[in-house]
User: Fold this.
Amino acid sequence: MDRSADVLLRDGTTVHLRQIRPGDADAIVAMHARFSERTRYLRYFSPYPRIPERDLHRFVNVDHHDREAFVVLSGDRIFAVGRYDRLGPDAAEAEVAFVVEDAHQGRGVGSVLLEHLAAAARAEGIESFVAEVLPVNAPMLRVFSDAGYQVRRRYADGVVHLSFPIAPTEASLQVQRNREHSAEARSIALLLAPRAVAVYGASATGQGIGAAILGHLRDGGFTGDVVPIHPGVDRIGGLPAYRHAADAGRPVDLAVVAVPPDAVPAVVADAAAAGAHGVVVVSAGFAETGSAGAAAQRELIRTAHVAGLRVVGPNCLGVANTDPRIRLNATLAPRLPPAGRVGFFSQSGALGVALLAEADRRGLGLSTFVSAGNRADVSGNDLLQYWQDDPGTDVILLYLETFGNPRKFARLTRRIGRTKPIVALAAAARPAPAAAVDPVPSGPVDAVPSGPADPAPCGPDAAGVTRLFAHSGVIRVDTVAEMFDVGALLAHQPLPVGRRVGVVGNSSALTALAAAACRLRRLTVAGGYPRTVAPEAGAHEFADALADAAVDPGVDALVVVFAPPLPGQLADEDADFTSALASVALAGDKPTVATLLVGQPPPGVPTYPSVEESVRALAMVADYADWLRQPPGTLPDVSGVVPAAATAALAAEPVEATRLLAAYGVDVVDALPAASAADAVAAAATLGYPVVLKAAAEGLRHRLDLGAVRLDLTGADEVERAYDDIAGRFSSGQVLVQRMVAPGVACVVELVTDPTFGPVIGFGLGGVATDLLGDRAWRTAPLTDRDAAELVDEPRAAPLLRGYRGAGSVDRHALVDLLLRVGRLADEQPRVRGLRLNPVLVRPHGLAVLHASVDVGPPTPRPDTGPRRL
Assistant:
């Protein structure tokens, strides 16, 4: 098994981690020779000046089961090694140890090694680690104590003996994610605040992409040094040029690359030799061109990471930082928007220039901008980590075409969205989820030929995706215009404390349209509104109406409309009207949006071409504010989960949904197949009366309305008649016999693998109508207690669960518990691509799962689990 990984260290630089090889012997000896005497003593408890040949052979030869070892490389040099050795055959305990070369100590290498060693050991059945550390080795003791495990210490014979279980805990995961956040944020900070930028590919003629970027850097006021690199000339664009970046004689932190794709690897090596932290590859000709280009792109990233570099691109627009202390324009855009407090990530390079131009036209000030192009390394997730703590960024805009790590995206946005609003424009085209295939039925039903099928799990529709974004703290928009509409409002106005809107204007037609738009967007038009001043009213009356609305305790936000003045009214009064608007919008604590059909919009007041657009932006921000007011959920401890039973269920062939669900504390009512009346009677006798007979075909099992289900059969004669009737109506003759359970409201619980969010859980009420209308609520796995409760309440048919028209309320607690268990299963079992519980009968007390089907396959990638890696 390949356990190699590129990882980020504490200082934001990359290194390569891989399993040790026999051929590493010479490199291990060389590393050992570079250790100080103190490092040797702390690791080996003796001077250990050289490694004996016998020890060296054992050191580099491991079986990757009882013994595993990882080396960490910078370039081609091994500078750290970590290992575990199982304490006896089939033991669940292993000794762990690692050592880091002196020059690299303090960079977080030990914690990375511990994470990867623990993950490898768990995969081989090891449950705990032991270690021996000298008391004076405080840094090594901190590596273990700070990892989040329950470490037990014992002092004996001058050595500290440590032991701890290596199963992930909430504490260890939090430690890991905090370190991940710090390292990724640091790596981006190095890209966006360089001391000097080397430009590769700028022509001496001043033509081409490289020369354009060089000019934008030079003329944009970059406060650092711009260093052109060219093999044949001494000056480019009025600046001294160098053959190699190292020749410049100054620290070069960032390289911008605009050379042909086959020359990019040599350029990356040259930048690494100069000590660069990252490269921005504007050059195209990589993965976007086909398989050969994709292979070249993978090699580019491998080369860069081994050299310690992050890569933006390839095929990107560049990066920018408007901070006056930096003024970095390493992009193809000749002009940047003004400095502001909005961070902007664009995956598209081709669209990037247009997006920057639109932000500039609207006066939307940016703090930093990154165009990722093919997103081979640096991604939107990296920028989210950076912007979380960036004091210069208050609002985040994302233009996304694909999601490389959807689970991580959802995790980050849930956290970051609590302090900084995130607006995302995601590509509309979404492939079908992995689970959109015929599921494997549960238990004995495997032998039943299929008939008309239930709807296969197909994941959330467009509205469901929008809700998933919203519940991850993201304001999802559908167009570039919407992204900037919402971004401008968030950048310049406070959040609303409620959904009550005061509509003020000088046109009754426009205020009526605004009020109607508010109601469509679930905004409440406050009492006494819309308020319309007379068309002939002057700026003073208009200002009074605005001021009254601004201090009205029944108003949370303002929608302002201003129509052209009447004929004969002075046009220069337009300025007075807009001044009145600015004085209210910029002085109060209520967000204000405006539609001005005449005059210049006042700075800082979001204005829109139509009332519908202004209300839409306000409604999206109000939805986000509602989300903020809800307390974040917690991941509750679910009792009765037996991991070993789940592993055994998934190892069986075929996989039975009933066994898998039982491992998570979910019981499915037994169902026995029957192909004749005699079989049905025998099955009923086995289960015990009363029983239910139902057609076995997927699409008929629940169709009482079609005569495919017969309830409350109390004897053999009734079972025989029911069988004959069902077999006569439906040609297969295959039925299911199930013990009769108490009636309830039929519900459906689904698990699907969504291409954007990974495993998601759906809930809705059962029935043909709700299936047809797609009345499902969706949340990402794992589910918090809040997620599960919202799933129960969100479907449009949910009132049927709460006693609609005199019916009794069902056991909501039992439903929430069921959803939490399915959510945990989805999170922990990457082989499960889809799961469907249909129907689930929910009663006033308890519930019954009548049928379950599962779709399994090879483990789907879960890039947001396990040890840190790029």
The longest strand covers residues 832-842. The chain has five domains: 5-167, 186-426, 496-629, 670-739, 745-856. Residues 575 and 599 are 7 Å apart (CA to CA). The chain has a mean pLDDT of 90.
